[in-house]
Each structure stands twice: as C-alpha cells, then as structure tokens.
Amino acid sequence: MDCLFCKIANGEIPAQIIYRDDLIVAFDDINPQAPQHKIIIPQKHIATLNELRGEDSELIGYMVQSAVMLAKQLNIAHDGYRVLFNCNAGAGQSVFHIHLHLLGGRRMNWPPG
Ligand code: 5GP
Ligand code: ZN
Fold first, then answer.
1. What is the whole-number distance in angstroms between the Cα of residue 96 and the centre of ligand 2?
2. Ligand 1 and 70: CB distance under 6 A
3. DSSP 3-state assignment of 39?
C-alpha cells in the first residue's frame, strides 16, 4: 500500500523512532510545531478517524495511554502538552493513516488555528 506511515512502520522509510511495539510506532515529526512534537501511529492502516470501527476502541485508548507515557518520559507532562488527531483535509490531515500528535515544550494556545 502506498502509505507514508505504513512505510515508516515497516522500516521502508526512515524516521527517528522513539517507541515501537506490536500495536504502535512513535517517532519525531519531521516538521516540528513545538520543541517536542511526536507522532504516534497504529501499525494497522486506518485512513481517517471516520473509518474507525468498534473493534478499534482499545487501540485508540492504547495510543492515548502511550502518548501520556511519552509525555512523562519527555518531561512535558507536568507543564502541559497537547494530543490531537486531525481528521480529513479541512482539519489539516495530510497523511491518510491515523496519527496522534503529541506536542509540548512550549505554551499551547487556544483556540488552535
Ligand atoms: P497531519 O497534517 O496529517 O495531521 O500530520 C502529518 C504530520 O506528519 C505532519 O506534522 C508532518 O510534519 C509529518 N510528516 C509528514 N511527512 C513525514 C515524514 O516523512 N516523516 C516524519 N517523521 N514526519 C512526517
Ligand atoms: Zn498506512
């Protein structure tokens, strides 16, 4: 499948991988929007949040728990961090394999742009 994040997950395209297990891969964003900007993807290809099925609930929960674990490891948990999914082009999704952004290390403004 011609998917950038599947290729990062299977090692065809290199990335600064910071965590990997059977379910997920986490790596540095190539164009960081904050001092810490990590991307967490499922190993399973799911194009957008709109394609989520009931059976994916545990996987999504696990992605969020993993973001919290990484935030603690990166020492941004206390000051604050943001985790988010963009869904479809109108929200800024540019890679169509769902991914959780983990951003921290600076003040996060609200509302986002
Ligand atoms: P989206 O805009 O789809 O929510 O987020 C996609 C993210 O993937 C962007 O923040 C972008 O910088 C990042 N990205 C795009 N291509 C690559 C790549 O080849 N390697 C890595 N590490 N990140 C990428
Ligand atoms: Zn994919």
1. 7
2. no
3. strand
66: CB partners within 8 A, 6+ apart: 19, 24, 26, 40
Task: Calculate the average pLDDT of the chain.
Answer: 97
Percent above pLDDT 90 for the chain: 98
The most distant pair of C-alpha atoms in the chain lies apart, rounded to whole Å, by: 39
- The superfamily in CATH containing domain 4-104 is HIT-like (3.30.428.10)
Ligand 1 in reach of 34 Cβ (< 6 A): no
Strand intervals (E) in 24-94: 24-28, 36-42, 81-84
Q: Nearest residue CA, atom 13 of ligand 1?
A: 29
Say which residues have a Cβ less than 8 Å from residue 77's Cβ, sequence separation at least 6. Answer: 68, 71
Question: Over 90: is that where the pLDDT of 84 sits?
Answer: yes
